[in-house]
Design brief:
Radius of gyration: 17 Å
Distance between the termini: 20 Å
Number of strands: 8
Structural class: alpha+beta
Strand content: 25-35%
Number of helices: 5
Largest sheet: 5 strands, antiparallel
Strand order of the largest sheet: 4-8-7-6-5
Helix content: 25-40%
Number of domains: 2
Length: 227
């Protein structure tokens, strides 16, 4: 699925089940020592995906530890992102010479509870969701909005090391598989005020992705680009 929403030179790996006998590094095991089985499986398989992707970049196996906000610490010279939800785990990585940041997020194609939607959505986004539902009710647009916001945060945080609230990103989703995010951080960031990403719906899942090429503010993905 990731190859539908990311440029060719971003290396990806995906899993639709949890492979048996995956071995974590000792320091990774320490992170999830007290985790329940579901959390342990997610943590383990998504790192299995990440190591497969890193190996395709020529990187040796490396512990992938979360920082204080849960973002993975990548090897020097690498940017990347991970995601996991029920029935899906994935990772995307690239060289910093090509990209400054990558953000991916996957969610089940199911409606979010109204209380959650009220928490994450701006009034303008709610109005746009109504229009999207009328034009294409087959997709859970509210869940896609949440997924896009998660992808925005995963792109924003590694670039700024600053939090970004749900209401600080105004998402506009288009039927052509793209979305825009206008950012309203406080105080305003001098450079990052807009991301452009892509989304897809397949296999009962929703997936959103953003890349920020090196030297650019944001990216409209071009699958003709090569490494």
């Amino acid at each position: 699925m990731l190859d539908q929403v990311l440029p060719l030179c971003v290396v990806t790996a995906e899993a639709f089940h949890d492979p048996a006998h995956v071995v974590l590094f000792r320091r990774e095991n320490a992170v999830i020592r007290s985790a329940i089985g579901k959390r342990r499986r997610e943590f383990t398989t998504v790192r299995w995906c990440a190591r497969h992707a890193l190996a395709r970049l020529g990187e040796d196996p490396h512990p992938l530890l979360p920082d204080e906000r849960g973002a993975p610490k990548w090897p020097d010279g690498i940017v990347g992102s991970m995601t996991h939800c029920e029935g899906y785990r994935a990772a995307a990585v690239a060289r910093t010479r090509d990209y400054r940041a990558i953000g991916i997020d996957a969610e089940p194609d199911q409606a979010v509870p109204p209380t959650v939607l009220e928490t994450v959505a701006l009034p303008a986004e709610l109005r746009r969701l109504s229009a999207l539902r009328e034009a294409g009710p087959q997709i859970s647009w509210d869940r896609l909005l949440f997924t896009a916001k998660e992808a925005v945060y995963k792109t924003w945080y590694p670039l700024t090391r600053r939090p970004l609230g749900f209401h600080q990103a105004d998402i506009g989703i288009l039927h052509d598989g793209t979305f825009t995010a206008h950012l309203y951080a406080s105080p305003p960031h001098p450079v990052l005020d807009r991301f452009v990403g892509r989304w897809t719906a397949d296999r009962g899942l929703l997936l959103a992705a953003i890349t920020v090429p090196t030297g650019e503010q944001s990216s409209v993905h071009d699958r003709t680009r090569t490494a």
